[in-house]
Fold:
Amino acid sequence: MAGQTLYDKLWAQHLVTSRDDGSALIYIDRHLLHEVTSPQAFEGLRLAGRKPWRRDANLATPDHNVPTTTKERSAGNAGIVDDVSRIQVETLDANCESFDIEEFRINDERQGIVHVVGPEQGATLPGMTVVCGDSHTATHGAFAALSHGIGTSEVEHVLATQCLIAQKMKDMQVRVEGQLGLGVTAKDIVLAIIGRIGTAGGTGYAIEFAGSAIRELSMEGRMTICNMAIEAGARVGLVAVDDTPSSTCAGAPSPPALSSGRRRSRPGVSWSPMLTPTSTRWSSSTPRPSSRR
Structure:
């Protein structure tokens, strides 16, 4: 019997129940929130009289409407000139305070791009399921985490139940072998892949990126590759565990509110099962040589 892919393993470990029509319910380990896709979700909780099922599994930060200049940021929310943008950030602050959800506010030194905050602060770990109301949540797949974007109604559902209704995707392996040439970056690799399979080539698939060129990438490079799986039409991008993500996770801080989260294990716990055996049969497999000098 062929081995399971990394995606198969992550799906099986988080499957709560499934139906004959292909629909399933999976458990979500980490839910990341930002100011754009969360207001209606929080309002839905209020109208239904519900509270978050697991507050410590949620982490919020404003990022889409946050100024990038020092002058504007120094004024906090008041420095956001656009009225709609400021209201969205202020609403996130109020909602997180009301529902007692950990938030890295605009002038918190931990605030940042929502896809980066999770890994930086130790909220993203190998083997997790991670969702956020943003399509590029696939970024976290670089840590061998099953991660993808969700819609606002799904944000409300995850807040209320810590579960997500989903259908299992097909799996695709993209192998990139060889040594990268001078000046060739992770973005060049993924753009070359998209050029080969097309902007809809990954539709319906969870793509696992593999091969010697992928293994040689830094953590940031792997995050770039998985982030741009979306531009290939996929919802999920994955890279198997090795020393690179393990070292990154071991050195990350642990936010107090997340200290009791599921899979909160640190160094000493083996993440080696988060690999795809060589005997695995794929729905689709695409080999590609890397660019050279």
In short: The chain has ten helices and twelve strands. Residues 83-99 form the longest helix (17 residues). The radius of gyration is 19 Å.
